[in-house]
UniProtKB/TrEMBL annotation:
Signal peptide: 1-23
Lineage, uppermost ranks: Bacteria, Bacillati, Bacillota, Clostridia, Lachnospirales
Pfam families: SBP_bac_8 (PF13416)
Claim: Signal is one of the keywords in the record: yes
Keywords from the named record: Signal
The keyword Signal is annotated on this UniProt entry: yes
Superkingdom classification of source: Bacteria
Full protein name: Extracellular solute-binding protein
Membrane-spanning segments: none
Amino acid sequence: MRKRTWICGGAVAAFLCVLALTACREKESRREPVTLTVWHVYGGQTDSPLNGLIEEFNETVGVKEGIKLQVTVVSNTNNIHDAVLRAAKKEPGAAKLPDLFISYPKTVLAMPDPECLVDYRDYFTEKELAAYIPSFLEEGKVEGRLVVFPVAKSTEILFVDKTLFDRFAAETGATIEQLDTWEGLYEMSKMYYQWTDAQTPEVERDGKAFFVHDYHFNYAQVGVASLGEDFFNGEQIAYGDGFMKMWEPYADAAVQGGVWLQEGYATEPLRTGDVIVSVASSASVLYYEDIVTYPDNHSEPIQVVARPVPCFAEGEKMVMQRGAGFCTVKSTPEKEAAAVVFLKWLTEPKINVQFVTSVGYMPVTEAAFQYLPKAIEDLKNPKYKSLYEAFIETQASYSFYTAPQLASYLEQEQTFEKTTRSQLRSAYLKWQKGEGDVEKLKKEALQELEDAMP
């Protein structure tokens, strides 16, 4: 009898233990996942390739690991740069910093306390980091800490509205190969202005610009470096022979109306037919449309093709290495580890190639590059195929320029961009009215630039 009682008691105890374990597991499964807020730049809030991948992560790895990513902002890098700095400085009305945000090193350098960001070397082993392209990791280091993690990299590409270019070429004899050099591009810019001006003989000097560059500061420093000189002398711009070789054809075309100098991104004037050639990030392929809508509101389909950026006839083939990375804000060990789980997943070779080929970027690991040729074959959009053909040629023939990490870099960049555009546009308007000689106007614009630079 006692033995039987003991057996029954043991069974009850075991049953209660199972119930307790089940309850614990149910409680564990009901536990809220670690939620991470994200600001990024890849597409739009409702139409973003990265948003789609984040949903996939949340439904797979996220469910298993108890992680949920929540995208709260999708914007451009300039807007996110401003928002990050306002948040970091705790300005009135500023949003709180998200757990993950896209950034360039220049943004981190401008933050009041970069130490608020995770050093990824605390979460990646040396073996894991060895899988990534070394120069991509190096660009993400600020003051010796790896704080900007690469998930995709881009470069600058020449985009051409081939439909309108072919019309221009048919009447003038211009060839697309002339766009291989900066000298050829700027000469063609002046020719295009004159050609469009001639279409309205009743109005003098009302031609159209031919070319727009998204970042004049990038053009300047890469151009000078490609000619074998340093663009910077310490924290200042060095106005040497290389600078003048870069400046002369550019300013000459700008003063005579061939270069678009208004504010905004290079994609905008191409959409409206105000220019037909642009240099922008390869990632801008997302925003180049296959239709142009003119100021009078009529539209027509166009073909946009991509080519490597021009180089100077006597210079090295060189192009800016671009592409921001993810920063993780220090918080709790659980949140920081969760962010790294996501970044490791996003940079797995097949996932990474799927991501970058949807947004016009390069993958970030050696292994991912092995998947790239097949992915390009599978691309259906001819604009993307053209982009990756240009991209492969760029990879094979060009060296990459990485902007230096200078304390004054951001101020130098902003001042150069604003002053160059405004002064050269002012010079063009004077030339348009017949109020000045081209050489004199170029010289005055350069002097204004030198005076304005910090």
